[in-house]
Amino acid sequence: MINWKVILNIAKTHLLTKIKQTAIAALGVTFGIGSYITLVSFMTGLNKMLDDLILNQTPHVHIYNEIEPSKKQPIAFYEEFKNSFNVVHSIKPKQSQKKIHNALPIIDYLEKNEHVRGALPQIKTQIFYIAGSIEIGGNLTGIDIMQEVEFFNFKDYVVKGTPEALKNTNNGILLGSGIAEKMSLGIGDRVQISTISGEIFPLKIVGLYQSGIADLDNIQSFANIKTVQRILGEAENYITDINVKLHTIEDALPLAQKIEQQFQLKAIDINTANAQFETGSNIRNLITYAVSITLLIVAGFGIYNILNMLIYEKMNDIAILKATGFSGKDVQLIFMSQAVIIGIVGGILGLILGFILSSVIDNVPFETEALPLIKTYPINFDFFYYMVGISFAMVSTFFAGYLPSQKAKKIDPVDIIRSQ
Amino acid sequence: MKTVLEARNINKYFKKPVLFHVLKNISFKVRQGEFVSIMGKSGCGKSTLLYILSTMDTDYEGQLFLNEELVTGENREKLSHIRNKYIGFVFQFHYLLSEFSVLENVMLPAKKLGEKSPSQIEEAAMEKLRILGIEHIAQKRASRISGGEKQRVAIARALINDPVIIMGDEPTGNLDSYNAENVFNIFKDLSDNQGLSLLVVTHDKDFADKTDRIIEMGDGEIIG
């Protein structure tokens, strides 16, 4: 029979009369948990920001027509050469068009798929920006601007002007910030662009685009799909790319494979396109956890030490408790509950400390040319990490308390009383 | 009269540093209401015997009966319960929990036993303190009271669960003659008026002479 009220009362008295030691032990946990929370919030916030930087702009499945040589060269179709060793020189890409055949029905079909949040048409084309006698090469992409805003956070990358302005302006263009700087252009100015075939169009600048990736900002601009179709002199069904956003990223690979098979198009899923990115995130997470666990283990040793000392100091108390009828288990529970109380109190304070520190970091200005939408250091306030923190505090203090309390359990009262 | 405590052929060896036969065939009985003292020179094994009788030391040969029931070989949980309920202890050094108040010290074994409600326990504890004439220090911290008072608190704590026997290991050894006299009178009163058995190890010849029976020990044997 375990009388918890008595045990907790004794534990409480021990802790309160040794308030300094208790506070030091709890502070060890507090700092351990506090720095874990701060570190993990900051690191995952940073990870998430870097991920978003790439992944938000990257479609989950990107569908386009790849210009490539036929996988099966004509000679492979001849029965007579089936068992021969054939050498083909100067293989050329297969003659094909850039546009996706039947693009609009494919978009309709994709949007009916329950895994798909949205399928967005795009037209990618090479152009030249004309500044006097100088021609600067670049890319112009025709987009459905409001859908891009909805599915790919496009608004975050429009640093001047608004996406709505593009939608409402017939011959509008969102100019890359790099190119705008080079040509000293701003909102309201006109920029002349020339297609590969040489036709020149004036477009009105309604906004500036900045992705944070300088190489991209130096060449990339956006216009409405219809504008690009008109510039290229193509029909309304001329679409070169389809970007698909899914509800869950895991569906990307199967869908990409299915599309490749069904429509004989190239479909790249996000994981294949950004495999190296995932690796970077994983390693950063690994480092975060390694450092945090080290901190918590150090805190655990602090508790172990202090409880050990406490038990030496309380030898007489332990002897008397045992002599008056407390069992070894009762004595063990007294010290275990002290450890766990230290863990809970220190852990909760640690969560608060971590929250305060990460809030402070969250408000520290962090402005960089490369990341237009980041104004302060990124912090991830995920509740999950707070749960992990408090659980770890309790588990580590449990083990830190277990060994000393096991010793207290085994103390023979006769030895103590005799030695007086 | 009922036998409260009985030792049958108890033998005890110390194995370290060398094998040493401390207790040799100890057999005796303590009856209800009897006030027994154990005397002997230092090192004759009387304290060792007391720890065996108190069930704290289980490393012995022979049999020990409490309330005519065999307690030898019981598990530690059971022995803890037996100490809690049936045996009260008074030591030479008073062994109070110094961080707790006097009242809490007295109440602790009863709280552990858990047979009464907290208010009943407090009442009983105050009653014991009153019998011993120290109810005025109930709220003081145990570390802040005098030696004589501490020993009386220890007696009150020993009495709280209404045990069948009280064991003392030199309970007056650390007290001046006035307080020693006082403690003896308390023991005598408990024995005579409340039918409590007492078994006290002592060096003090005067103290022993006033008890009902003296067990004289020498070299691990009962010699008288």
TrEMBL record, chain A:
The protein in question is named ABC transporter permease
The record gives the membrane topology as:
Multi-pass membrane protein
Which keywords accompany this UniProt record? Cell membrane, Membrane, Transmembrane, Transmembrane helix
Record bears the keyword Cell membrane: yes
Fetch the Pfam families from UniProt. Answer: FtsX, MacB_PCD
Q: Which InterPro entries match?
A: ABC3_permease_C, Lipoprotein-release_system, MacB_PCD
Q: Where is the ABC3 transporter permease C-terminal domain?
A: 290-413
Family per similarity comment: Belongs to the ABC-4 integral membrane protein family. LolC/E subfamily.
Instruction: Write down the species.
Output: Gillisia lutea
From the Swiss-Prot or TrEMBL record, state where the protein is found: Cell membrane
Q: What transmembrane ranges does the database entry give?
A: 21-43, 286-312, 333-357, 383-403
Tell me the ranges covered by the MacB-like periplasmic core domain, including all copies.
22-261
TrEMBL record, chain B:
Matching CDD domains:
ABC_MJ0796_LolCDE_FtsE
What GO terms are given for molecular function?
ATP binding
Question: Which Pfam families does this chain map to?
Answer: ABC_tran
List, alphabetically, the InterPro entries matched.
AAA+_ATPase, ABC_transporter-like_ATP-bd, ABC_transporter-like_CS, MacB-like_ATP-bd, P-loop_NTPase
Q: Where is the ABC transporter domain?
A: 5-223
Source organism per UniProt: Gillisia lutea
User: Would the keyword Transport turn up in this protein's UniProt record?
Assistant: yes
Stated name of the protein: ABC transporter ATP-binding protein
Q: What Gene3D superfamilies does the annotation carry?
A: P-loop containing nucleotide triphosphate hydrolases
Keywords attached to this entry = ATP-binding, Nucleotide-binding, Translocase, Transport
According to its UniProt record, which protein family does this protein belong to? Belongs to the ABC transporter superfamily.
Lineage: superkingdom: Bacteria
